[in-house]
Structure formats: C-alpha cells, structure tokens
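Task card 7
Instruction: Convert sequence to structure tokens.
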Amino acid sequence: MNLKNIDFETYASEVLPLTAALWAGGRSAARYAAHVAEIARSGYGRRHYRTVGLYDGDTLLASFKRYERTVRAGSQRLQAIGIGAVFTPEAFRGRGYASAMLAMEMDRAVGEGIDLTYLFSDIRPQFYTPLGFVALPSRSMSVRADALPATRVEVARLEERDWLGVARCFDLGERHRAWAFVRTPLVWEWLRLRMRQGSEHPQSVETNLVVRRRRAIAAYVLGARAPQHDAYILDEFGFADTEAAALIPALLRSAAGDLQRVTGWLPVDSARDVLPRASIRKRSNALFMVAPLSAAAKRWVKVAAEAKQDGVWSTDHI
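Output:
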C-alpha cells in the first residue's frame, strides 16, 4: 500500500460521487463537484491543497483532503497540515485503512519538517487518539438577539472593497492571542471562495456586515441568516480598536434582524469578552483535534490544552 496524490479528474470521478451524500450539504452532485474544482484551481488550492489516496496497486482504499496552514505560537511559526474529508469506500471499511492512511501521512509529514497535523472530528474523538491527536476546547454559544444592545450605528453590507480592511481588523485582534492560524492573502482568498460557495451554511443566506469609519473598516461580522433555525449563525468578527469593539453587539443585532438568536462557535479567547453572557455548550461535531509532530508543537499543544480556551474561528474549519 502507498499514498498517492489524486488529480482532480480522478477525485471527481472516483470519490466525489460517493461523498456527496455526506458533504454536499443540499447542493447537487454537479454543483458540489464544481465547488471542489474551484477550490483546487484557486491560488490557495494550487499551492497549499491536495487530495490524497491510499492505494493497493491501482485500487483506491481510502482518501482525504490535505490543507497547508501555519500556526503562530508566540514568536514561533509552526507548519501545519489539516486533514479533511477522510473517506473509505463501503467495500473497504472496518479494515483500518483510514487509520493506516493517516499514520502514513503523518510519517511523511515528519520527513517534510511539518510540526503538526489537525482536523475537525465529526465522529468519536477516540478514533483519532491512537494516532496521537489531542482534543482541544470546541464549544458553541447562543445569545438571545434581544439581549444585544440596540445601539444606533450605521451598518453596511460588506463589499469587495472592504476585504483589505476586514483583514486588517482581523490581524489587529490576533496580535493579542497566544496562538492563532496565520492568514496570508491566499488563505483569505480561500476563505472568501468558500463563503461565496456557501459550503458551510448551504441552507442559509450569507450576511456579512461592516461599520465604516471614514474610508476604513472599524468592525465587521461574518455569518449567515438561518430562518429555519430562527438564528443568525456567526462565523467570525473583528474590530480595529477598543472603541470599535463596542460596536460588535450592535452589528450582530442588525445581522439577526427579526431572528431570535445569534449562534455559532464560541469566539476565540481574545474576542469573547465583547459579547454579553451566552449559553455555552461543548460541540458534538467539528471537534478541533491536533497531533503534534515536533518538539515545539508538543510544547504548544500542552499549553493550548491547559488554557482551556477555544482557539479557532469557524472560518478555519475544513
């Protein structure tokens, strides 16, 4: 058995028809395949994304998507590989192929100087524990929209020209964190592409709002309105300074409109205090798990686990 990169045409014909029921999220099979192709052909996709399979000769036994990211941990930069869409065809399940595939990828990553691997688990975390993955805090929050202050603020929909300002606000907020995923221009491109595709909230309406301060972005929220759940699903927010941070609750109330709740992943530690007290619970899916491969990553994971604070935005989800 060996690992091979899978070209998109092969992945589209051999894997996507089998995984559409799991991950298409209500999209047609053709639209699902078109979105995956768009990711693969993007600037980020050409440089930092690939699809990989475990083969026995010419037989594909299991597959996954591989994403390259960088983690800033204090003054260090740790090179990371994200694992997504782990899949084994039904005829080969129960034989340990997926575990063998990930173990082989992790061995290969060590040889490439990669510091850690990460994933978002939708199954029992115990499945990944033998491979060295550690579960980090992964929680959801819910706030009643009418608990958010109805501050008078001029809110606008996010436009293409606003993205540089959004990235600046994000970077300013991330400086106060002990660790975070680094966002390069290519990562921002990937994030925006997935947002346009609606891959995270296929049944909802993308609703991204900003507050402008002259020509600059003072604060922003990214998310989607989900009337079927009577909620605005928050993906991320950011602000330029302390004064702008006070605008986030009003932005969220505007995004919710006539919906009763604001829900989503619990914001990261440096941003959580700008929201009123919320109902918080552990997520049952998309549990953030990390497997350290280097000594530096092992030290970071120990600190991150002991901090007991959520460390990723839902926009980092793969």
